[in-house]
Design brief:
Shape: elongated
Bound molecules: 2-carboxyarabinitol-1,5-diphosphate, magnesium ion
Number of strands: 13
Structural class: alpha/beta
Strand order of the largest sheet: 7-6-5-13-12-11-9-8
Radius of gyration: 23 Å
Length: 430
């Protein structure tokens, strides 16, 4: 079939091969027929442009032509298969400059949503994948089956290093496993990175001694890439076990580099800014796609929302886009974790992180909707109590213990004052 300008890309009989990259887009054309717009997406993201090309050799068409093999005008959906030679293994920026690049700025598209990508084994294996994954993290913490529970030091920014370490210490003492920096805390005039790491890791050691439990601290190393590596090395040199990266704002290239150097450090991925891509259901890039990319590159745990329980978006609606992969229109309890945990050519499963507006009363609903292979994080829901962080943290841990013992929170609260206070203040999420 001849390829003229953006034509010749529709082939509804085409069956994707195992080496193709298959991409699902939702779009609304702007002043052109659906079929034309579909081919513009396929062409602009591969070998086409707005006019015929004298330089487009038959060989190129034969080997690299994409195929629009599925179209549903009602759902505004197309599926396009791209030969994998269009993509450089191990280069996520290049892959996305192709299938999520120019096409987002084309005049002939009113809206465009990159909904899902299915990568072939060769490309998946060209990235590092998680080093630890769910099993590795559970082993590190010695927590077999309950959700991990943690906090974000609050306020997000403003505490000095000593205050930060003290809040962390109290959270661990109260029974939390994990303490993390907030997404906008890095190296600040009032809170220097190195001093914070030193003091907080020292507090961690003391908390471990006092409680007999393993604890982890996730320092936020987000910065310019070379600086991230310096911060990562610093954490390692101080015997830290984790690093945290804001994966959207630092970019996929930065994340790939961090993963190359992370070795024995667990990577916690914060998704601040994802809403710019994921928020509108008909525009941008879905959380499903972001989750797949993050897993391929190799984060060990990733914020994916709270399935409607907390303050952030990522309600069941968005989570459904993560699920659809598995079971269309079926919002089952564990489904939202599936894209992170399903079998994927030996790539380790990523631990899902639920965070944002959570408190002890959220725990039963979270576990019902997301299962137990999760990290539950509460910032405000831990540091709210006038009696202090230890008290708030105890309430949080008691909620986990109650759910794991199969005891209703209300009942457990009769003998656990810290939990009782929390549910009196925040209630219990249905
Ligand atoms: C939670 C949090 C997290 C968000 C991220 C915050 O604090 O620290 O960054 O949960 O959202 O700053 O809001 P609170 P998501 O517990 O006090 O709400 O996980 O959806 O990416
Ligand atoms: Mg935060």
């Amino acid at each position: 079939m001849a390829v003229r300008a953006y034509t010749g890309f529709i082939d509804l009989k085409y069956r994707p091969s195992r080496s193709d990259v298959v991409v699902e887009y939702l779009f609304e054309p702007n002043g052109v027929p659906f079929e034309i717009a579909a081919q513009q997406i396929a062409g602009e993201s591969s070998i086409g442009t707005w006019t015929e090309l004298h330089t487009l050799k038959k060989r190129i068409v034969r080997t690299l032509k994409p195929s629009v093999f599925y179209m549903d005008k009602k759902k505004k959906l197309v599926k396009i298969a791209y030969p994998s030679d269009l993509f450089e293994p191990g280069n996520m920026p290049q892959i996305l400059s192709s299938i999520a690049g120019n096409i987002f700025g084309m005049k002939t598209l009113k809206t465009l949503r990159l909904q899902d990508i299915s990568f072939p084994k060769k490309l998946i294996k060209s990235f590092d994948g998680p080093r630890f994954g769910i099993k590795g993290i559970r082993k590190l913490l010695g927590v077999k089956s309950r959700p991990l529970v943690g906090t974000i030091v609050k306020p997000k920014v403003g505490l000095n290093e000593k205050e930060h370490a003290q809040v962390a210490y109290e959270a661990w003492l109260g029974g939390l496993d994990v303490v993390k920096d907030d997404e906008n805390l890095s190296n600040m005039p009032f809170n220097h990175f190195k001093k914070r790491i030193d003091l907080t890791l020292k507090a961690l050691e003391q908390a471990e001694k006092k409680t007999g439990e393993k604890k982890v601290y996730m320092p936020n190393i987000t910065s310019e890439t070379m600086e991230m590596l310096r911060r990562l090395e610093y954490v390692r040199s101080r015997m830290g076990k984790y690093i945290m990266v804001d994966i959207i704002t630092c970019g996929w290239a930065g994340l790939q580099t961090v993963r190359k150097f992370s070795r024995n450090l667990v990577i916690h991925a914060h998704r601040a800014g994802h809403g710019a891509f994921t928020h509108l259901p008909y525009q941008g890039i879905s959380m499903l796609v972001i989750a797949k990319i993050a897993r391929m590159i190799g984060v060990d745990q990733l914020h994916i929302g709270t399935a409607g329980v907390g303050k952030m978006e990522g309600k069941t609606k968005e989570v459904v886009s993560i699920e659809q992969e598995i079971e269309e229109d079926n919002v089952s309890a564990n489904a939202m974790n599936l894209v992170l945990s399903q079998k994927w050519y030996g790539v380790k499963p990523v631990l899902a992180v639920a965070s944002g507006g959570l408190h002890p009363g959220s725990v039963p609903a979270l576990v019902r909707r997301m299962g137990t292979d999760i990290v539950i994080q509460a910032g405000g829901g831990v540091h709210w109590h006038p009696k202090g962080t230890v008290y708030g943290a105890m309430g949080m841990r008691q909620a986990i213990d109650a759910v794991m013992a199969g005891i209703p929170l209300k009942k457990y609260a009769e003998t656990h004052l810290e939990l009782k206070d929390a549910i009196q203040r925040f209630g219990i999420v249905k």
